């Protein structure tokens, strides 16, 4: 059964809660002071794949990619910002960032957007560093997994 096609505005309204009046506020933030033009580029892409081998399903995959880019033109300068977390707050932040880049583009250095990322979570902490394990124990562990007759004797 084919999927029903929705107009883009309805799709983003239903899936992300983005309404026309919200987009007008985002564009107003992008145009801000002295901007000549601003636009929003919405992306939503879904990929599905099935791998067959000798007529049998070997693997399946599905992925989605979505986001919104905001471009602002001010005289000869262009500012661009992107968010893949589609919320009005993030769209407004991207709009202000693109507007800032277009207005204050003295250098080519990137501008930080959003919150700084903290330290990554250590989901699998290592209790004993690999450098602290004797070579004999490493050998035992690797051979034990392939041959149950191997045993560690001594220290």
SSE inventory with pairings:
Blueprint: H1 8-16, H2 20-31, E1 37-53, E2 56-74, E3 77-83, H3 88-103, H4 135-144
Antiparallel strand pairs: 1-2, 2-3
Account of the 3D structure:
With 155 residues, this protein is α+β, with helices and mostly antiparallel strands. It has helices spanning 8-16, 20-31, 88-103, 135-144, and strands spanning 37-53, 56-74, 77-83. Strand 1 (37-53) and strand 2 (56-74) form a beta hairpin. The termini are far apart. The chain has a domain at 8-103: 2-Layer Sandwich (PmbA/TldD fold), CATH 3.30.2290.
User: What CATH architecture of one domain do you see?
Assistant: 2-Layer Sandwich
What proportion of the residues is helical, as a percent range? 25-40%
**Shape, principal axes of CA atoms:** elongated
For the largest beta-sheet, the strand count, sense and barrel status come to:
3 strands, antiparallel
Number of strands: 3
- What is the C-alpha radius of gyration, as a whole number of Å? 26 Å
Question: Could you report the average pLDDT, rounded to the nearest whole number?
Answer: 79
Tell me the strand order in the biggest sheet. 1-2-3
| Ends apart, CA distance between termini | 67 Å
CATH fold description of one domain: PmbA/TldD fold
Number of helices: 4
Brief sketch in words of this structure:
This protein is of the alpha+beta class and 155 residues long. It contains four helices and three strands; from the N terminus they run ααβββαα.
């Amino acid at each position: 059964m084919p999927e029903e096609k929705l107009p883009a505005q309805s799709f983003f309204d239903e899936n992300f809660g983005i309404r026309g009046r919200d987009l007008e506020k985002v564009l107003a933030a992008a145009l801000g002071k002295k901007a000549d033009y601003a636009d929003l580029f919405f992306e939503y892409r879904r990929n599905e794949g099935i791998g067959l081998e000798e007529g049998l399903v070997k693997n399946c995959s599905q992925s989605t990619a979505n986001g919104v880019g905001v471009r602002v033109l001010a005289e000869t300068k262009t500012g661009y910002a992107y968010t893949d977390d589609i919320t009005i707050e993030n769209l407004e932040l991207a709009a202000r960032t693109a507007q800032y880049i277009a207005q204050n583009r003295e250098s080519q250095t990137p501008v930080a957007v959003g919150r700084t990322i903290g330290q990554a979570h250590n989901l699998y902490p290592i209790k004993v560093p690999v450098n602290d394990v004797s070579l004999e124990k490493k050998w035992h562990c690797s051979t034990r997994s392939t041959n149950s007759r191997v045993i560690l004797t001594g220290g």
